[in-house]
Every structure is written in structure tokens, then in C-alpha cells.
Design brief:
Blueprint lengths: L7 H16 L21 H7 L13 H4 L13 E6 L15 H17 L4 H21 L7 H5 L4 E4 L3 H8 L6 H10 L8 H10 L2 E6 H4 L8 H6 E5 L7 H40 L1
Parallel strand pairs: 2-3
Antiparallel strand pairs: 1-3, 1-4
Organism: Leptidea sinapis
Keywords: Cell membrane, Glycoprotein, Membrane, Receptor, Transmembrane, Transmembrane helix
Subcellular location: Cell membrane
Length: 288
């Protein structure tokens, strides 16, 4: 195989299921399926296992709440991480090494440097100028940031076209069905067309041309990026289809519980203090 990493997910799932079969001392019988996770086709791997016509999935199925009620999972063995990849054009920074100082400041610095060079001395002032200059350069490098869309909605409003690798779970969980992801639905209305599904080789070429944001699993895409130049790799940007970042709404219950625990601890502390003070007062009165 020219690129063995291409089907690493399939091999990972098959190897894991084979190890389970070996541990159980069972007989391995392969049952072919047409699809992976479709629930509208009885020929999918998910439906065969959930209906009992097969015992173990030979591939990897993302752990989802709706599936836990139909399938038993041994463990999570594959990092599902999908999204769009595109080639961004960063703003020109050719003059960033000159920008921190004006022409007059550069002339003064050159004069000071010439004098100090002649005297072979370095003073604290020159170190201060150097510190300012280097911090300005770092700030300029960081401020260039990404010069393209950073969300699905922003991608929908951008100049980029979109395309996707053709996996059944992408069709039946994301693009060929109505979802409750507002940003994804916005992107689909704005950008999807008849040529949306493309194989990964074509998708990589689209990314390199700089006009298309291509959707696939990142860990499937990375081996293909070895053909990119260093400049192209530096310009690559990624947008998660399913954001993995934690927001305030995800941790709100934990924050509420923590706040309640703090309040409760203060109440208990106040009660303990009051009881101790009352006990001490009663003891003092009894001694008198």
C-alpha cells in the first residue's frame, strides 16, 4: 500500500476486535457491510451489531449518547477529530523588522551603536533598546495570527469553497441530514454543491490550490501533508466541525456546585463558631 496510514482507523478497529475474539477463544467470521454507522440501512455495521446479526464491530464507531443505548463499547480506541483544512494567506510582514522604530530612531540607534562600538562598551540603555525591539518583533509575529475564517459560520462568509471526504458518518450525521448545529447548517446553505464529496487525494490538491477548505479527519489528512512546502504548512488553518474546546456552558454545573459548596462551608463555619462561642460562654458562666 502506497500510504498505509490512509486506512489506519480501519486497521485499528479490526485489530482491536481480533484481540477481543482471541481473548474469548472465539471463531472469527467476517461479515461484509456496505456502510459503517448509517441507521437507515440494515447493511451498516452499526445496524448489524445492534440487531444481533453480528457480535463485534470490525471498525471504529464514535461513542455517542444515542449509540450507547444500542451498543456496548469496550473502550475508546480512535481519536475522532474532524474539520476543515484550508491554506490561508497571511498579511505581509516583510517590514516587521523595521516597523518598531521610525527612521529618526533608527538613525539615533545607529549613531549610538557606532559610538559604543568604538568604545567597546555596552550600557544598560542599549540593552533596554534591544529589549524593546525584540518584544516589538515578537508582538508583530503574534499579531499576524490567522488571516482566515476561524469558525464554520465565518467559513460560510469567506471566499473559500468547501468539499469533504465521503464517509457515511459524515453524510448521515453532518451533511446529508438536518442537524441542530446552527453554524453548520448556515455553512451548508451557503456553500454546499453537487461536487461537495471528493476523495482525499483531490481534496489535498484543492487545499494546495488555496481556494477550497477540505473536510476530513485530521489524522487521516496529516500523512498527505508531507508533500507540502514549509511555507504552505505554516499557512494551514483548521476549523473543527465538532468543537473540542470547553466553553462556560459546559462547566456551568460544576461552577454552580462549587459556589454552593463554598457557601455551605461558610455557613457550617459560622455555625461551628457560634456553637463554640456559646459553649465557651456557658462554661464561663457555670464557673462563676
Amino acid at each position: 500500500m502506497a500510504m498505509p496510514e490512509r486506512d489506519s482507523g480501519i486497521r485499528c478497529g479490526f485489530t482491536a476486535s481480533s484481540l477481543i475474539i482471541q481473548k474469548l477463544n472465539a471463531t472469527e467470521i467476517l461479515v461484509p457491510t456496505q456502510l459503517w454507522s448509517s441507521e437507515t440501512n440494515n447493511e451498516s455495521m452499526l445496524m448489524k451489531v445492534s440487531q444481533g446479526t453480528a457480535d463485534i464491530c470490525g471498525g471504529v464507531l464514535r461513542i455517542m449518547h444515542s449509540r450507547v443505548q444500542k451498543l456496548d463499547y469496550a473502550m475508546s480506541i480512535w481519536p475522532f477529530h474532524v474539520g476543515f483544512t484550508y491554506l490561508a494567506e497571511r498579511e505581509s510582514s516583510n517590514n516587521m523588522f523595521v516597523a518598531p522604530f521610525t527612521t529618526s530612531v533608527w538613525l539615533c540607534c545607529s549613531l549610538i551603536f557606532a559610538i559604543l562600538l568604538g568604545a567597546q562598551k555596552i550600557t544598560a540603555k542599549t540593552m533596554l533598546v534591544h529589549a524593546y525591539y525584540t518584544s516589538a518583533i515578537v508582538s508583530a509575529l503574534m499579531s499576524t495570527g490567522r488571516s482566515g475564517p476561524d469558525s464554520l459560520r465565518a467559513l460560510g462568509d469567506s471566499r473559500y469553497e468547501i468539499a469533504s471526504e465521503d464517509y457515511d458518518y459524515m453524510r448521515y450525521l453532518m451533511f446529508d441530514v438536518q442537524t441542530n448545529w446552527e453554524d453548520l447548517e448556515y455553512l451548508k446553505r451557503k456553500k454546499m454543491n453537487a461536487k461537495f464529496y471528493q476523495n482525499i487525494q483531490t481534496g489535498v490538491k484543492m487545499i494546495r490550490d488555496g481556494q477550497v477548505a477540505y473536510h476530513t479527519e485530521f489524522n487521516q489528512l496529516y500523512p498527505h501533508l508531507s508533500s507540502f512546502t514549509d511555507d504552505q504548512l505554516c499557512k494551514l488553518q483548521f476549523i473543527d466541525t465538532v468543537p473540542e474546546r470547553v466553553n462556560i456552558y459546559d462547566i456551568a454545573p460544576v461552577l454552580v456546585l462549587t459556589l454552593m459548596a463554598v457557601v455551605l462551608s461558610l455557613i457550617i463555619l459560622l455555625i461551628e463558631y457560634s456553637v463554640a462561642k456559646f459553649t465557651k460562654q456557658r462554661k464561663k458562666e457555670s464557673e462563676e
